Each structure stands twice: as C-alpha cells, then as structure tokens.
Amino acid sequence: MTIETPLPATMKAIMARGKYNLKLEDVPVPQIEMSTDVILKARVSGLCDPTQGYIIGHEVVGEVVRIGDAIKNFKIGDIVAAPFASNCGSCFYCDKGYTARCAQSEGYGCEALNGCQAEYVRQPLADSSLFPVPEGMSEEAMLLLGDILPTAYSCAYHGRRLLDEDDDREMNTPIDAVAVVLGCGPVGLCCVSSARSMFKTVYATDPSEERRAQAAKHGAIALPLEELRATLSKTTSGRGADVVLELVGNTPALHTALELVRPFGAVSSIGMHMKPLELHGEALYAKNARLQFGRCSVRRFFPGALRVLQQNRELFDAFIQHRIRFDQFAEYYELFDKGKIGKTVFYADDVPIPGA
Question: In terms of residue numbers, what domain contains 29?
C-alpha cells in the first residue's frame, strides 16, 4: 500500500508580474482538479522565456506525489518528465500524431495552466502526456526531452521531409544534402545534433562566437554569416543550401533562410514568430521553396529525439551550463535576457546539485 506524505499548503514559485518583472512568491500548492491529473514534486526545471501573469516555466522532471482516480500508467513515487503541453492521446489531432494541436491541450506557463518553476506542478491528462525516466537516464538529460530536443529534432525532420516527401529512408541515415542551422542557442545546438543524423553536411551560424564554438562541438561547420554565404556559394556551385533550419523566430532570420536556400529547397522554421512577418513575394515565387512553421508534437518525435541524445551522450552530458536554486533566479534571468547564458536549470532545494 502506498502511503501519501502530506503536502504543504504553500510553495515557492517564480511569478511573472510583467516582462522580466519576476518575483519569488509563496503561492498555494496545486491540487488534483480532474481525475486524469497528477501532482508532481519538481526535482529539475528549466529556465525559459517568461509569460506575464503566471507561474513561469514549461520544462520539468518530477516525482509523482498525488494521482487522480483515473490514472493507470503512473503511481506515487515515479520519476517522470513532462512535455511543454498536455495531450489527450485520442482526439482527431492526437490520432494523427499531431499532439501539439490536441483538442484538450493545456500548455505550461499560461492562463490555462501554471508553469513549472515551482516546488509542485499539476499535470493534466497525465497518462497520455508524461514520460517515465528510463533506467540509466539522468534527470537533466530527460529534461531536454520535454521540449527543446524533440523541438529541434522536429525542425530537422520536417526539413528532410519537405526536401523529398517520397524519401522513405530511416531518419538516422544521413542523405547527401547540405543543411544550415540558423541560431546556435540551446535549441539550435540540439538541432545541429539532430541534423547531423539526417544530412551529410551541416553548417551553422550565429552572431555569437561562443555559440558558434558550441555548435562546432556538436559537429557543425560553424561560421559567421558572411563567411557562410561565401562558403555555401563556393561549395554548392552557387545553388545554396538544400535545407535551412530556422530557430531564431524573427523576420530577418526568415529573410536569411530564403536567401541561403537553393531553388526547390526547404525551409523548416520552429522559431517562435510572435509578430507579423514581412516576406518578399518575389523571393518566395522565384525560389519555389517549401516552408513549414509550427510547434513540436513532442510525443511523436520523442523516440527520434531520444535516439539523438543516446548517440551523443557525452555532448549532452555537458549540455547544462548552470545549475541553480529558485532564490538565484533574478541574476540568471538578467543574463538570459542579455543572451549571455546557455541552458540553465533550477534544482529543488532538497535535490542535490550534481558536482556541487
């Protein structure tokens, strides 16, 4: 018989009271609201872009401490990872593998569902959303599989499928094609590793020399943009890249993608484009390029992302740059806002920080 330990009435959580107006506050511990819910005690959560008005954060690995009456796949004490949004597993979109558009989906860190930078987290639709942490897998590595690694993998996957929709080869067999990754932050680095499993040649570019150096460690030919332009022209007889993978999320990045891609090539974008886009119709018409946008269906791409992680274990073991406690949030969000830090994670106060 499993004995439930009492939960506290309140918990620490990072609240966004405005853009980067963040506060560490005492708030009520979440409760089971639906029979398909579980409550997680957070162990590791990811630092990410804040959404105003809510507990922030959309990446968490935690321990199941409460379960709803309908839960069948998990029990109290299980260590699990959560995707950035829940999914029911049975609606029109989930049946097709498009879990990102689940009819019942709720995303962390918004009006529907508070985020994960807190001591406790409510997970809706838990049976069809959560992933158990495999034996031998670190919690930090598993955290990457809740969002950024599947997202990056999906970007490379869609680029490959757009390039040749009849290509039925395994995605871990590189084809003779040139891919360019635009943006070498944490998601971009995951995309470089994913792209290397699908394309024979992978370039990457970013304004930051430090980020380009990280991309090179992941196996990309990492160059400043002007040098990349010249190199692509020389090595492809002026055609351009077969595939451009865009992870920045703004209009200039898309202009660059359309500039670098060859005619009848592919542009796959998973950058979050939150503002109106201004694209040149002539460039689109002249290039005959195929474009795809949108967020990742984590459950669909989890197996491929897991394979990339396992094939690059040493790289991803060193992926997390900063490990902090909740009360250190202000310093690290300031650095995050300035683009001066890599992947950063919060550890719960009672969970030992590796290497500390």
Answer: 10-147+297-347
